[in-house]
Amino acid sequence: MYIMNKGGLMVTKKEMTKVWVEDKFLPVTLVKVLPQEIVRYKDTSKDGYTAAVIGVGKKTAKKTKK
């Protein structure tokens, strides 16, 4: 199975702030990196294409199967 190696992160925006760099304030965005996990692989024999399904964030107790 071939999975393309693309970089990337899933994040949520926390806040805007500023930092002092070389006698200037620069605006910056603070982000939180979310937990990520590959939850399923799709392949051409079943799905017609190749892909990895990525789960992002935490699963709540309400959405968990008993």
Quick tags:
mainly beta, two-stranded antiparallel sheet, 1 helix, 66 residues, 4 strands
* Helix share, percent: under 10%
Strand line-up across the major sheet: 1-2
Query: How many angstroms separate the termini?
Result: 32 Å
Total count of helical runs of at least 4 residues: 1
- Share of β-strand residues: over 45%
Task: Evaluate the radius of gyration.
Answer: 19 Å
Q: Indicate how many domains the architecture comprises.
A: 1
What is the overall pLDDT average? 85
- In N-to-C order, the SSE pattern is EEEHE
Structural class, by secondary structure, is mainly beta
Query: What is the molecular shape?
Result: elongated
Quantity of strands, as a count = 4
Low-confidence stretches: none
- Biggest β-sheet strands, sense, barrel: 2 strands, antiparallel
Could you write a compact summary of the structure shown?
This protein has one helix at 44-47, and strands at residues 11-21, 24-33, 36-42, 51-56.
What do you see in this structure?
- This protein has one helix at residues 44-47, and strands at 11-21, 24-33, 36-42, 51-56.
- It is mainly beta.
- It is 6% helix and 52% strand.
- The strands form 2 sheets. Strands 1-2 form a two-stranded antiparallel ribbon. Strands 3-4 form a two-stranded antiparallel sheet.
- The protein has one domain (11-63).
- It has 1 helix and 4 strands.
